[in-house]
Amino acid sequence: MAEIIVKVEDLVKSFRDVKVLTGVNLDIEEGKITTIIGKSGTGKSVLLKNIIGIMKPDSGKIFFKDKEITSLTGHELLEIRKNIGYLFQDAALFDFMSVEENIEFPLVEQLCIKDRKKLKERVEELLELIELPGIGKKYPSELSGGMRKRVGLARAIAVEPKIVLFDEPTTGLDPILAENIDELIMKVNRELNMTCIVISHDIASTFRRADKIAFLYEGAMQFTGKPDEALRSEHTVLKKFISNSFRPLETEQ
Ligand SMILES: Nc1ncnc2c1ncn2[C@@H]1O[C@H](COP(=O)(O)OP(=O)(O)O)[C@@H](O)[C@H]1O
Ligand SMILES: [Mg+2]
After folding, report:
1. Is the beta carbon of 20 within 6 A of some atom in ligand 1?
2. 50 lines ligand 1 (CB under 6 A)
3. CA 46 / ligand 1 centre spacing (Å)
4. Are 86 and 118 contacting, i.e. CB atoms less than 8 angstroms apart?
5. pTM
6. Is the dihedral of CA 46, 51, 55, 57 positive or negative?
7. pLDDT tens digits for 64-99?
8. How far does residue 108's CA lie from ligand 1's centre (Å)?
9. Average pLDDT over residues 213-226
10. Which residues of 97-117 are buried (b: 16+ CB within 10 A; e: fewer)?
């Protein structure tokens, strides 16, 4: 049994009178890929933002290893955040910075690396990893959507976080580019040993790649388990969600 690296306990979050999360419980196992699925607007991104600490819950707790993190602020929160990388849906690169500067940013800000040679080496290593060597001097506007996503991924893992959160990493990409991003996530997980939490609308990919699936519905996790357990689950809403979202798998054998 893997260690639990992140534990979410009875997390509640509302906006004005709209209750989005009504009591989320979730254990994230170290070294695994956990994929969160659920209809659009159910609070998947809100949950991720709470885990990162850029949004605070109304009640409930989140633990990183043994440390309760929802109550942390300032320096203590920054220390915990060094362990967590994230890639938002729009990749959110800084447009006024080159690719190189974008990837250097967390290295300088979070790890306080000032040595030019060290920075350059690390950026080159990351560009190799995302299979885009030599694009360091380009600006985000010169890149395709898929390339921007990959640079965003390089930036997210630059400081070697223990966990990486991906919010809909393949949304808006064509199937081949989506496959590339999926493979990169596998690489980050299997080769760099980072725990991955992925929000995905791509159910076919989720069932191929995830070690564990968590289904968010009406403010709570209605199911958590392995992909084959999800497929065998008798949970009516989950069954319906899966059958409605499965794309035809003509190319699969
Ligand atoms: N900062 C915010 N202020 C007010 N409402 C918000 C905010 N962020 C999210 N919401 C609302 O919370 C609900 C869940 O949003 P979100 O987590 O983005 O859904 P999902 O990622 O599952 O598609 C939506 O109804 C959304 O409008
Ligand atoms: Mg979302």
Report:
1. yes
2. no
3. 6
4. no
5. 0.93
6. positive
7. 999 999 988 888 988 898 899 999 877 689 999 999
8. 32
9. 97
10. ebbbbbbbebbeebeebeeee
DSSP 45-60: HHHHHHHHTSS--SEE
Residues 9-53: pLDDT tens digits?
A: 999 999 998 999 999 999 999 999 999 999 999 999 999 999 998
User: What is the CB neighbour count within 10 angstroms for residue 221?
Assistant: 20
The alpha carbon torsion through 65, 225, 48, 155 (nearest 10 deg) reads 80
Q: Which of 11, 22, 35, 46 to mutate to test the pocket of ligand 1 (most atoms within 8 A of CB)?
A: 46
Could you give the percent of the chain with pLDDT greater than 70? 97
Q: Which residues of 172-195 are buried (b: 16+ CB within 10 A; e: fewer)?
A: ebeeebbebbbebbebbbeeeebb
Q: Does ligand 1 have an atom closer than 6 angstroms to the CB of 102?
A: no
Which of 63-77, 83-97, 147-161, 177-191 is predicted with the least confidence, judged by mean pLDDT? Answer: 83-97
